[in-house]
Amino acid sequence: MLAASVASAALSSCGGGGSKEPSPLVAQSERVSLELGALAEDSPMLIDSIGVDYAEGVFGVSVAFCDTTVHVSDYSDALVQYVLAQYMKNHAGPNLDEIINTLSKEKGKLNITLSDAHGTVREYPVDANRLKRLVKLKPMELAYNDVRTNVSDIMEKECEAYKVQYNASDAEFSISGGFAQYTLTFERSNAYANLTQASLTGRYLKELQPRYEDFGACRDMVEDLLRSLSIDGYRFIYTDKNDTKTISAGIPWRLIDK
């Protein structure tokens, strides 16, 4: 969810021109490299480094993640392009127009390379014609359902950790009623007999707030993505196998962002 936003930040920060030799994008890539270096410094728990260069029609952005929860193999091309489009639309202007037009004239492309702490490397090329379309297309025209499914699959992977942390028998994930919902099922209701809705809210706020703080300068990008997919926060539900007692705590963004 973060990677495409970081790369698109580079794209939207660039200026361009129509001169033939040398391409103005060479100098711009050096400037953007400094800007994204600052972004990496402001997101030290998430990003190890960002490199930017331009050569032979390829504007390259390389993002290396240090957060071990990031697995770039989880990020589909549809998700990367969706976030890229979202960011470009929020940063429309002369700089973005110039970089896309220059890439188009040079028959070039943006090439996003992502790597994670597990040694996985993946490339996401986007040619200039596709970049033009991404700016114009509406969210529902950008493989919206596939992107929502991709994000759901990524968030579902947290179920095992939640299950182990509180000794639940099972944990399930869904996007329901505008929330990223985790349902933990226990053998017996006495496992959470002392919890109330308020205390359950407090339990997960203590986990969610530091997590989002660790996103650093990329935090808004993550939340904007989730909001665009109609995810307005989190919900945690505790129940038991016999359905004798259920407690539920909804945690909207306004609580997480306090």
Descriptive account of the structure:
- The protein is built from ten helices and eight strands.
- The protein has helices at 3-13, 24-41, 77-90, 94-105, 128-136, 144-156, 159-165, 197-213, 219-228, 253-256; strands at 47-55, 58-65, 109-115, 121-127, 170-176, 179-186, 233-240, 247-252.
- Strand 5 and strand 6 (179-186) form a beta hairpin.
- Helix 1 crosses helix 2.
- The protein is elongated.
- The two termini are 22 Å apart.
What's the number of helices? 10
Number of E-state strands: 8
Fraction in beta strands: 15-25%
User: Mean pLDDT across all residues, rounded?
Assistant: 90
What class do helices, strands and sheet pairing give?
Answer: alpha/beta
Strand order of the largest sheet: 1-2-3-4
Measured as a percent range, the helix fraction is 40-55%
Work out the oligomeric state of the chains in this entry. Answer: single chain
Rounded to the nearest angstrom, the radius of gyration is: 21 Å
Low-confidence stretches: 13-19
- What coarse outline follows from CA principal-axis ratios? elongated
Q: Short description, anyone?
A:
With 258 residues, the chain is α/β, with parallel strands linked by helices.
What characteristics describe this protein?
single chain, 258 residues, alpha/beta, four-stranded mixed β-sheet, elongated
